[in-house]
Amino acid sequence: MMANLQPGAPFEYRDRRHDALGELTVLPDEIICSILENLAPRDVGRLSCVSSVMYILCNEEPLWMSVCLKLAHGELRYRGSWKKTALYLENVPVNYIESDRSPLHFDGFNSLFLYRRLYRCHTTLDGFSMDSGNVERKDGISLEEFNCDYDVKKPVLLDGLANAWPARTSWTIDKLLLNHGNKAFRISQKSAQKISMKLKDYVTYMNIQHDEDPLYIFEDKFGEIAPGLLKDYHVPHLFQEDFFDVLDGDQRPPFRWLIIGPQRSGASWHVDPALTSAWNTLLCGRKRWALYPPGKVPLGVTVHVNDEDGDVNVETPSSLQWWLDFYPLLADEDKPIECTQLPGETIFVPSGWWHCVLNLETTVAVTQNFVNPKNFEFVCLDMAPGYRHKGVCRAGLLALDDGPSVEAGMIDLCGKDDVGYSDLTRKEKRMKIQQEDGLPQHGTTNESPRYSDVQKRDFCYDIDFLAMFLNKDKDHYNAPWASGNCIGPREMREWLFRLWVGKPGMRELIWKGACLALSADKWYNCLRNICMFHNLPHPTDDQKLPVGTGSNPVYLMADHVVKIFVEDGLENSLYCLGSELEFYTLLCKLNSSLRNYMPEILSSGIIYLEDGSFTVVPWDGQGLPKVIAECNLLPGTYGKDSFPFGLWSKKQYELRRAGTSPADLACPAGSSVIWPYVITKRCEGKIYAQLRDKLSWKEALNLASFLGEQLHDLHLLPLPPFSAEISDIGRKVESKFDDSCMEVLPGNSKISAEWEIFIRALSSKRMGVSRRLRNWGDPIPDALIKRVDEYLPNDLTKFLTSSFSGDEANVEENCKPSWIHSDIMDDNIHMESCSGDSDCNGKAVDEVVGNGSLNGHKNEVEEGISWRPSHILDFSDLTVGDPLYDVIPIYLDVFRGDTSLLKQLLQSYKLPLSRWTSQHESEGIKTRRLSYRAMCYCILHDENILGAIFTIWKELRKAESWEEVERVVWGELNSYNNFS
C-alpha cells in the first residue's frame, strides 16, 4: 500500500484518507468494507476508479471472496484469486481477466483493520504452541461409564474407537483425491447459496489460498455422493442409539458430515442444532477445540433469537480471529475447556455445549449428531415454538432482562489495538424484546473477560429449569415454527408418533418430550373432556399421543376419530369446521355417492377453557354458539339454520387474510382457549402414505381411477347460494385493501361474483410472489425466481375469459367454480384390505383387522393382502375455485409425478378442465394451455409446491425458463380433451 521512495528524496508523510474518501472518512474502514460487500462486482470495479483509497479498499481479496460467494451457485471452480473467480462468474472477457497490468501502489494510507486482516490471511499455525489441553482423555471406555460420567455432562476425548476403521489409512488427501477427485462436495461459506467444488478443484484451492477464513468441505450427503465412504467407518458403540433412526431418509435431518479443511479454517462458535449431541473423529491432521458449558456465551459472540418464531442466529468472529484477538483477553479462570485433537481420536460434544474448532493443519474428519434418551427432552424443548427458552438454553440468564447484567464487570476495550471496530460497538449491543407476559427477552453479547460468575449464577442446564421459560399459553400446533429447526412441524409430529409406536418401553420419556414440543398434555386434557361429554370410552395410554403429520391434533380411539381444530387460530379453525359441516350436510341432503367415501361425522362442537375447567358445547355448524358470538368474529346476524362459517364466508375470510398483515390477523382475546372439534367414524385400514411402496401397479391404477371418480362427483356438486349478505361482507372486506390490491380486476371484466372472489385471492398472492419464492429458496433455482414475474400473467382473469375480439364468453357457460378439496395427499387417502385371491372390489377381509394397531391393521403389510381405496379424509381445507387445483396435490404428492397415473385419473374424471372449446385453442395464447394454468397455480400456491417439483424432477434445477419446467411437469395436461 506504500509507494517506493526515490533514492535521496525527502520523506514527507501525507495522509490521503480525507481527500480520497471525502465525507466517508468519518466511517471506520470496517464499515466501508461491509458496505462494499453488498455491491455488485461491476459497482465495486467502478468505485475502485474513484480515488486511491477506494482503489485499495476495492481490491482486497476478502472483499472479492464475499462478492464471489454471493454470485456463485452450484459448482464452483477457484481461479487463483477471488477477484478472478468473480470476474469469470460475471462472464468478463478472459483477456481482460488475465491482464498482466501491475497493481497500483499508494503511500499515505494506513489501516489497522486491513493490516490485521492481511495478517490473518497470511499467518501460519505451524509455530503456534498448543498444549494437550484440559479435556479429559479416556481409552477403552465402557458404555456404562460413558452414560454415567459424560453423556450430557461434559466433553471427553476418546482414543481407540477408530482403530479398526479402513478410513484410518484411506482418508488421506492423496487417497481421497485419487478415488473421489471428480466428485463434487458442498463447501462451507457465509453465503446463503449452496456451493460445491470438485474435490480436485478444492484441493488446488486449499494449497494456494491465503484466506483469513478459508472454505472447507462440510458435506452431509457424502454417503450419497460417494457411497464407498460409508463402508470406511462405523458409528462407535457409545453413540449407536439415535432416535432419529426411525425417520425415513428424506425426512431425517442432516446428521453426518465429511469435513476437510486447511490450516486456519474451522468452525466458529456455535451450539449444535436442536441441542443434539455429537461425536467427531479425526482421521488426519490436528484440530484445536475450545468449549464452554451451556449458557456461557463466549467472549465476542452475540446470540440473536427471533421474537416471532424463535429462530436463533449467532454473530461470531471466525475461528482464527477468535483465537488471535479474543482468547488473549481472557483471564485464566475464564478460558474455555481446551484440547488438541490428534489423528484417531474422537471427541464427544454434549448437548448444548458451545464449541469452536481451529484446524492447525490440513485435516480430514467425520462427525455425526444424534439424539438419545439423555438429550431427547432437550431436543424436544428446542423444537418447541417460542423464543425465550431458546435464548436461555444458549445464553443462560443473560437472555433475561431481570437476570444478571451482561455489562457487569465490563472492561474497557476501546484502548486495545487488537480489537476491531465491530467488537468495540458490540459491547453496548443487547436486544431487548418484550414478551407477551411482560418478561423481556434477549439477544445477548459477552464482551467482558471476567464474566464467569455472572453467567454461572442460578443457571442450570436441567430440563425442568429450562422448561420454565416455555410460553405454555401458546398453541404449539398453531405457533410459528422456527425456520432454523432441523426438522419441520410435520416431521416433528411424525417423529414423535413413530417413537411412540416403535419404542413402547420409553413412552414415559417420549410423552415428556411431546408435552414440551407439542403441548401434548393440553390436547389430551381436551380429548378426555370431549370423550366424557359424548360418553365415549376413556382414551387408553396407547391413544394419548396425536397421530398423523397434520396441523391439528387427531386421535384414533377404537371406533372413533377425534380432531381438534387449532391451525392458524380460532377464526380459521371455525371456517375449517364450518365449511366441512356445511359440505357434509349437503351430501346427506342430496344423497350423493361421495358421502360413502367420506368418514361419517358423528358429532361436533366447541370446547373452551374457563376458570381452569373445560366446557363443551355441541355445534353442527349452523347458528352461532354464545361463546363464539361473544368473540365478534362475524359482522351481521345469522339465523340458526344458516352456516355463518360456511363456504362463502370462508372464501371471504381467505380473501381478507390474503390481503392483511399477520399482525392484523391476530386472534381475539381469549380465542387461544377455544377450540372447535369434530368426531368421525374410524375407518378400518391404512392411509396410503403407509402403503405407497407396497402396492402393485394394478392397485396404483385402481387408486388413480378412484380419485378421478371422486373428483368428478365432488366438482359436480352444487355450490351454496351466493347471498347478498355474503356480498355485503365482501364489500366491507374489500374496503380495507389498499389501492394496489384493488387493481387486480379490470373494470370491464364480466366474470361472475363467485369467480371474482377466487381471482382476487389469487391476485393478492401474485403481488408478493417473488418475496415468497426467495424465502423458500433452495431447491427452487435462483434464476427462475428472478424471472417469475415475467412468466405470470399480470391479469389473472385471462384464465377465465377470452381475449379474442368479440368473444365475451360468460364463465358460467363454460365451467363454473366448484367445491375443491385442495389437500388430497398421501396421508388423506384411506385404503382397506381385501384378500389376494378375491376381487379387490369385494368385501374387505375381516380376519386381517387387528386391535391395538396404527389404523386398525398391523403395522406391517401382510403377505397375500391387496388394498383398495376406501375414503378421502380431512375435508377441513374445502374451498371454492378452479377444479384444476385438486389435480396438483394428487399428481405431485400421491402420484409423485407419474404421468401414467395422471392419465388414468383423467380418464375417470370425464369433466372439462379447460374453459375453451376447440375452435378457441391457440398456441400463441399461453393462458389457454392447461399446463400453463397448472404451473401458475403451483407458483402462487400457499404451500411450497415448487419445492416438491424440483425434488421430484431434480434435472429441472438447471432449467433456464419456467416454460421448460411447465412442459416437463404439466405437459401431459395439454393432451387431455376434457372428456373421455
TrEMBL record:
Gene Ontology molecular function, alphabetical: metal ion binding; oxidoreductase activity
Needed co-factor(s): Fe(2+)
Gene3D superfamilies: 1.20.1280.50, Cupin
Official protein name in the record: F-box protein At1g78280 isoform X1
Organism of derivation: Punica granatum (Pomegranate)
Coiled coil: none
Pfam families cross-referenced by the UniProt entry: Cupin_8, F-box-like
Signal peptide: none
Transmembrane portions of the chain: none
Main location: nucleus
Residue span(s) of domain F-box: 21-67
Cellular component, GO, one term: cytoplasm
